[in-house]
């Protein structure tokens, strides 16, 4: 045998498989290189799309980056296929829903976890979470929401969030109409429907529906925020100011509600108040929202914090390149008007 043939016979072909990519993803995760970790984990999932371990680890990375909706999509998929073997997913879902402000869902999944794994690795964490939620005020209008609704609702929630953040109003309305028909007691869907309806073009109908709801439920925080935004864009300054004044002394406990309120003040042009609300947000819990970067950067720019505005916008475009990268910075119109 020739030396050339001997050398060729010693060459062992190496074809990376899912476990190789998975190990690289874990390594990057431990170094807190989350973007790189997700890159490797996605490669692993391409090799083996049904591997529940790959999906669970990717969900953990998404949670670390504040992309709770993406994390929940993966966890829900694991539970639908391998729920009996991956009960930790119930706790991870509970934790994510607590961060998203969906407190009833958080209670539901924390309770499910403790039922299925009373001595599990996360049992103490689940009990602590339930204790915290016990002391957290949940809006009265949501208290009738039943905790045993089907998991299909989760898929609707993730899909609606996707379309609303991308301002795909028609697609969001179709899903929200289905949600309301299937889950009429899920009040948040009604508020999101009116919001999408307004920006889709049926403005007076949206205002009428939200106003009627607010008259019947004067403590509804979501109604207040929607009405501020609706009257701002309709240039009903007196009505907008009246509703905005009602928000001034309200400080929600849940991060997602805090974010929506900060965005509401920014959209209403109350940038000083918006700044006060944005700067106390826990960024790790809200950076999964493109709207966080859009309105926080706008607020910073208006308040002459241009360097921070540019930094926030660039980071937002990196985090949400499919949503923000094609857009101009939100303050572009203001700059053009001053030229």
Automatic annotation (TrEMBL):
Keywords annotated in UniProt: TPR repeat
Gene3D superfamilies the UniProt entry points to: Tetratricopeptide repeat domain
Keyword match Ion transport: no
Signal peptide: none
TPR repeats: 18-51
Protein's name according to its UniProt entry: Tetratricopeptide (TPR) repeat protein
């Amino acid at each position: 045998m020739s030396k050339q043939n001997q050398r060729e016979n010693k060459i062992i072909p190496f074809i990376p498989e899912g476990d190789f990519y998975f190990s690289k993803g874990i390594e990057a995760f431990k170094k807190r290189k989350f973007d790189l970790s997700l890159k490797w984990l996605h490669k692993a999932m391409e090799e083996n799309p049904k591997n529940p371990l790959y999906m669970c680890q990717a969900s953990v990375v998404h949670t670390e980056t504040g992309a709770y909706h993406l994390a929940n999509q993966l966890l829900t998929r694991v539970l639908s296929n391998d729920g009996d073997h991956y009960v930790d997913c119930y706790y991870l879902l509970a934790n994510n829903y607590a961060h998203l402000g969906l407190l009833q869902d958080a209670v539901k999944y924390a309770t499910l976890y403790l039922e299925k794994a009373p001595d599990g690795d996360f049992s103490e964490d689940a009990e602590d979470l339930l204790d915290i939620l016990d002391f957290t005020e949940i809006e009265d209008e949501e208290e009738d929401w039943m905790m045993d609704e089907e998991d299909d609702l989760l898929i609707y929630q993730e899909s609606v969030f996707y379309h609303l953040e991308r301002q795909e109003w028609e697609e969001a309305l179709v899903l929200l109409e289905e949600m309301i028909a299937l889950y009429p007691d899920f009040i948040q869907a009604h508020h999101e429907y009116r919001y999408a309806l307004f920006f889709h073009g049926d403005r007076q109908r949206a205002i009428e529906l939200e106003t009627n709801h607010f008259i019947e439920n004067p403590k509804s925080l979501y109604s207040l925020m929607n009405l501020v935004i609706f009257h701002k864009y309709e240039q009903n300054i007196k009505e907008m100011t009246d509703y905005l004044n009602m928000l001034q002394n309200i400080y929600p406990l849940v991060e997602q509600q805090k974010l929506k309120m900060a965005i509401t003040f920014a959209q209403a042009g109350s940038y000083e108040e918006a700044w006060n609300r944005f700067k106390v947000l826990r960024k790790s819990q809200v950076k999964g929202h493109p709207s966080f970067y859009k309105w926080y950067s706008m607020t910073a720019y208006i308040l002459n914090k241009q360097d921070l505005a540019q930094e926030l916008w660039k980071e937002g475009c990196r985090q949400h390149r499919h949503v923000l990268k094609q857009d101009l910075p939100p303050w572009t119109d203001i700059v053009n008007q001053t030229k």
